[in-house]
Design a protein that fits this description.
The structure is a homohexamer of 138-residue chains. The first copy, chain A, contains seven helices and no strands. Chain A has 138 residues and is mainly α. The longest helix of chain A has 23 residues. The termini of chain A are far apart. In chain A, 56% of the residues are buried. Chains in contact: A-B, A-C, A-D, A-E, A-F, B-C, B-D, B-E, B-F, C-D, C-E, C-F, D-E, D-F, E-F. Chains C and D meet through helix 2, helix 3, helix 4, helix 5 and helix 6 of C and helix 2, helix 3, helix 4, helix 5 and helix 6 of D.
C-alpha cells in the first residue's frame, strides 16, 4: 500500500479536489489513478507535478501519442512497474495499437543493448556528430 | 580511443565490408559511424547487431522518426553520451526539428521524475490498469 | 521468498548470532530485518556488510538521520522496493517526519529529471566548477 | 558543446533574462551556470524547471544543505558528471565540508551495494515494514 | 499477468512452435519459460531474440556457466526480478553452486559501490589504462 | 581532476602508505591506480574499501578472472567509464583475451536488452522458478 494511503475524491480538500477535477477534465475521464491520490498528501507536489505533466504532455510539436510512447519507453528502461502499467494504458488511450507496442518494446530493448556495447567498447564520438552539432547551434 | 581501435572500410575484410555496404545503402549515406567500426573487430556481433537494428528500426507501425526519437529518449535516460550524439543525428536525419527535440527532452525528464516518485511513495497498481490488461490479452 | 530462505536467531550459528546481537544492540531494537537473515547464509558477507554499514551509518560529520535519508534517496532512485521500505522505516526511526519524507521525494524526483536533461542537452561542465575543484584539491 | 550552444545574458530575450535575474537573486550570485544557458533555448522549459527547482530546493522541513547533498547523492548514483560538478559546488556553497562530502560518498556507495544484494537475494519485505506503513497512512 | 497473456505450445502457430521446439532442444528441456510465451505475440521479435540468445549464450571463449553468471550479474544490477529468477535457474542448470552464487552477489554489490564512488570523486582515467588500450588496438 | 586531487605514495601518511603497500603486494605490481589515490583523502574509506575488495576479489569458488569479468560487466552496464577502463585492464591481467572480451560484451548487451523487454511485457515469474527456489532454500 502506498506510504500514506490514497486520498479519494470525497475525502480531498478543496485544493486537492480542484486538481483532481482538472486532471479528469483534461484527460476526459471520470477517474483518478493512484499516483495522484498517493502524492495528494503533499498538495504542493501534487499541484506542481500535475501542472508540469499537463504542460509537457499536451500535443505540440510531438503529438500526445508519441509523447505517451516515449514516457512508456523511459518507464520500461527504468523498470518502473507502476509507470509501465499506467503509461501503457495512457498510450493506448491515445491510440497505441498492440502492433505499435510490440515495435516500441523492440526499440527499447535494442537501445539498451547498444547503449551498453558502445560504452563497453569505449567508442569515441565521431567528428561528424560533433560538427553537426555546432552547425545546429550556430 | 575505442578498445581495439576502428576498422576503416579500406582495411576491412570482405565480410565486414559487405555489412558496411549494407549500412550505407540502407541509410542512404556514404559514411559509417564509429560504433560499427569499433565492433567490427567481432564480425559475428557486427553482423547480428546490424541485422537487428535494420529490422527493428525500419518503418513499420511506428515510423522511422518516432523510432529514432524513442532510441534517443532511452539513450538520454541511460546517460550514454555517444548514443545521444549518434541518435540525435539519426533523429534529425529522419526529420526531428529543434522544437521536437526540446519537447522530447521535457518528456524524458518528466518521466524520470515521476518514475522515482511513484516508487518512493510505493504506489500500488490500480485495479483499473490490471483489468484493462486482461481485456487486452483476452 | 529469498533464495536460501531466512536464518532465524534460534537457528543461527554462534558466528551469525554474534552479528545479530551486535545489530540489535547498535540499533537498540530486538528485531532483525530480512536482509540480514537472507545474507546470513554467507557469514563472511554478513559480517563484512554489517561492519561496513555500522561504520558508515554512524553519526559523524553527517548525523544519522541525514545518512538514512540519503540512503533512502538512493534506494528510490534505484527503484529498490525492499530498500525503500526498510530505509523509510530506518529514517523514521531517526526522526524523519512525513513532511520531511515529502520534501525528500520532491528532491529525488527533481534530481532525476535534471540529471537526464543535462545529459540530453549535452551540457559541458562550467569552467567555474572546474576551477573551484582545483582550489579545493590544492 | 551543448546541442544548441549557450545563451549568454546579453543575448537573452527579456523573458529569459527575467529568469536569469531571478536565479541570480535567489542564489545570491552574479553567475548563471551552463545548464540554464543550455535549456534557455526552450524558454517554457527554462521557466518551468527553474520554478520547480526554486520551490523544491528552498529551505523547508529539510534545510538547503541537506537538499543539495541529496541532489548530489542522486546525481552520483546516476553517474551524471555535469550534475556531480554542479551540485558538489552547490552543496559546498550551502556549507558542505570536505569531511561531509566523504561521508556522503560512503553512504551513496554503500546504498548502491546493498540495493543490489537485496534484489539479488530476492529478499521479501518484512511484515514489520508493511504494518508500520499502514500505521502511518491511518 | 503479462500484457498479452502467454501463448502455450498447443495454441501456438507453426512458426512459433518451431522456435519453442528449438528452445527446448537447445536447452535439453521440455519446458518453455514465460518470457518466450509472452513475446510470442510478436513472432518476429521471438525469432530474433531467440536466435541472438542462442548464438550469444552458447559456449565459446567463455563457457556457458560464466555467461549465465554474467547475465545474472547484469540482471541483479538492473534489478529485474523476473530476470534474476530465470537466470539464477539458468546458472544453476549450468553448474552454479550456492557458494558461487554468494561470491557472485558479493562482486556485483562491490562493483556497484565502487562504480559510484569513482564517479562521485570524479576520478580521471589513469594514463596507464589509456596506453594499455592503445597497445591493444595496435 | 579528481575532487581532492590524488595522493601520491611519497606524500602519503604511514596509514595510507601501508594500504598502498598491501595493494601493490596483493596485486603483484608497483603501481597504484587513481581510484585509490583519490579516496586516500578519506583513510577510513580507503582502508574499508580495499579490505572489502581484497576479500571479495580473491580466488574462491569463482576464480579471479571470472570475478574481474563480472566486475567489468557490471561497470559496463552502469556506464562507468573509469571502471570500464580499470576493470578491462584488471581482467586482462587475469587472462581475459580479446575474444573473451567480445563475448562478454555480447552477453552484457543481450542481458540489458531482455531485462527491459521482460519488464515492458510485464512477464510474471514462472511457478517453475519459484518452486525451484524453495527447494534450494529447504
Amino acid at each position: 500500500m502506498s506510504i500514506f494511503g490514497l486520498i479519494e475524491y470525497q475525502d480531498a480538500s478543496p485544493e486537492v479536489r480542484a486538481i483532481y477535477d482538472d486532471i479528469m477534465a483534461t484527460r476526459k475521464t471520470d477517474w483518478i489513478n493512484n499516483f495522484w491520490k498517493a502524492i495528494a498528501h503533499d498538495p504542493a507536489t501534487l499541484k506542481r507535478t500535475w501542472q508540469d505533466i499537463k504542460q509537457i504532455m499536451a500535443s505540440g510539436e510531438l503529438d500526445a501519442l508519441t509523447k505517451e510512447m516515449v514516457y512508456l519507453a523511459v518507464s520500461v528502461s527504468n523498470q518502473c512497474t507502476y509507470c509501465i502499467a499506467s503509461h501503457t494504458a495512457g498510450a493506448r488511450k491515445q491510440g497505441m495499437t498492440d502492433a505499435m507496442f510490440k515495435e516500441l518494446m523492440a526499440v527499447v530493448g535494442m537501445a539498451n543493448e547498444t547503449n551498453k556495447m558502445v560504452t563497453g567498447y569505449q567508442v569515441e564520438i565521431d567528428e561528424g556528430f560533433k560538427s553537426q552539432q555546432s552547425v545546429v547551434s550556430g
